[in-house]
Design a protein that fits this description.
Strand content: 5-15%
Mean pLDDT: 80
Order of helices and strands: HHHEEHHHHHHHHHHHEEEHEEHHHH
Radius of gyration: 33 Å
Largest sheet: 3 strands, antiparallel
Shape: extended
CATH architecture of the largest domain: Orthogonal Bundle
Helix content: 40-55%
Distance between the termini: 140 Å
Number of helices: 19
Strand order of the largest sheet: 3-4-5
CATH class of the largest domain: Mainly Alpha
Structural class: mainly alpha
CATH topology of the largest domain: hpI Integrase, Chain A
């Protein structure tokens, strides 16, 4: 029996477990790894290492890694954690994490370096990480006072967005000092032109900071050991404005709007009408409407299954659900299904969907643009007119069935989110005090223009001027 095998046998006897019992434990159990840790022998001297190691094979590669401890219990725990990291991020990255081979960097990372590293280790969707990166670059650009140009929105015009990002990405993360971030948020709100815009900018400021800060969370930082962050970390201890009221106040007549859309859009531009119908009747978000396929519409049970598909992913895990719609609308959808020529409910000539390196594009963007124009023409003046229809449905459901039903239909992750936006806004709680007054008790108002005769009233005469003595 080799020295190595003897060490393993002694370890098992010390742990009080037989090899047969050890096999019964799952790999996520520390007890599974107690019999698999070992102290390797030096091939030249034959001496035993003071530290335990573990050997794991993954993806056709077998590798031994030192656990950097001579305590068997601690070594088994580290072995279990190492195995979990291997399953999540791969063998090479897990080995680098448990025993980094590179020395600590002596330079603070740049914005571009950190964004690239974060994109490689974050488990969030590509679109979400792209939004975080966009928020970070926006704040950085304004802190650095980078000159703005319309070309930054056009990737095909002499570099466009890529050239703009290049200027931002070259800057060090050291620019995000607490003082700089504080001055940015104050200046961002001060640029408001009126109280309504000021409240909006307060909300936007909070949102931008939270998104940018997400790139420096523990779930990302611990997987990027080769890049150095400033101290304190960007946005650490940042102040936020008080939460602004997000209560929804209805300013549209949904019944009249739906009837007008049916009359003007259903035959002339069917995709535009369908997009409007899905937002108002089912409360679907823009991305959900864009990627909705006919197989997600259950005509027999009168519902729409909102789920991840090959075309798109959902906003959150709570967004996955079955949304009921009334039988009348199912009949309308059945008629459109009979005329459909493709798999998607919204047919569009532009079939280029999904997140892009320079922003998000929707497969049916042209359809949405036409719908926005129609909605604004018909009195929906909100900044996001399509999302306004979803809010209107939330208000209707809240009034008719209560806040919990609205939360389920809108697929919010928490009913508190629904409660912040809706509170029976269609119901007017008033006392009819006007009925207490008899017609004879109403005070008659004087005419606005003196000198004009009112019907059935004596003409009001102006006083004569008295001539002054010469």
């Amino acid at each position: 029996m080799s020295r190595n095998s003897a060490t393993e046998k002694v370890a098992r006897e010390w742990q009080g477990e037989s090899e047969r019992n050890a096999r019964a434990f799952a790999k996520n159990d520390v007890r599974f790894w107690k019999k698999r840790i070992f102290k390797p022998l030096d091939g030249r001297t034959g001496s035993e290492s003071p530290h335990y190691s573990v050997r794991i094979a993954h993806g056709g590669v077998r590798r031994s890694v030192s656990l950097e401890t001579g305590n068997a219990e601690a070594a088994a725990t580290r072995a279990r954690d190492f195995f979990q990291d291997v399953m999540r991020i791969g063998l090479a990255a897990a080995a680098e994490k448990i025993r980094p081979t590179s020395s600590a960097p002596d330079r603070i990372a740049t914005i571009g370096e950190w964004i690239v590293a974060a994109q490689g280790v974050s488990d969030a969707s590509t679109t979400t990480v792209g939004q975080y990166a966009g928020a970070l670059r926006l704040i950085a650009g304004q802190i650095l006072s980078v000159k703005k140009s319309k070309k930054r929105f056009a990737p095909g015009k002499k570099g466009g967005a890529a050239e703009f990002r290049k200027m931002i990405d070259a800057a060090s993360l050291e620019i995000f000092t607490p003082q700089a971030v504080q001055q940015w948020r104050l200046g961002y709100v001060k640029r408001a032109q009126n109280p309504a815009e000021e409240r909006s900018r307060m909300t936007s400021s909070n949102s931008l900071i939270k998104q940018a800060r997400s790139l420096f969370g523990e779930k990302i930082v611990r997987f990027v050991p080769n890049l150095k962050l400033p101290e304190p970390k960007p946005f650490a201890g940042c102040e936020f404005y008080p939460r602004q009221s997000s209560r929804y106040f209805s300013r549209i007549d949904p019944k009249a709007l739906l009837q007008a859309a049916h009359a003007e859009l259903s035959e002339q531009v069917p995709p535009v009408f369908l997009a409007m119908l899905l937002a108002l009747s089912a409360g679907l978000r823009k991305g959900e409407i864009d990627s909705l396929a006919w197989h997600q519409v259950d005509f027999d049970q009168a519902l729409i299954r909102v789920e991840n598909t090959a075309a798109a992913s959902l906003k959150t895990v709570d967004s996955r659900d079955e949304v009921p719609i009334d039988p009348g609308l199912i009949s309308i959808l059945r008629g459109f299904r009979a005329k459909a020529t493709g798999e998607f409910v919204i047919e569009s000539p532009n079939e280029d969907s999904g997140p892009k390196a320079w922003g998000r594009m929707y497969r049916s963007e042209r359809v949405f643009e036409k719908l926005y124009a129609w909605l604004r023409k018909n009195g929906v003046t909100a900044r996001k007119p399509l999302h306004e229809l979803r809010k209107e449905l939330g208000a209707l459901i809240t009034t008719e069935f209560g806040i919990y039903a609205a939360s389920r239909i809108l697929r919010h992750s928490d009913v508190a989110t629904t409660a912040r936006h809706y509170s029976d806004v269609k119901t007017r709680a008033v006392i009819s005090m006007g009925d207490w007054l008899a017609p004879g008790n109403v005070i008659r108002m004087k005419p606005k223009t003196p000198g004009k005769a009112l019907k059935g009233k004596t003409k009001v005469r102006r006083p004569r001027r008295v001539k002054e003595a010469a």
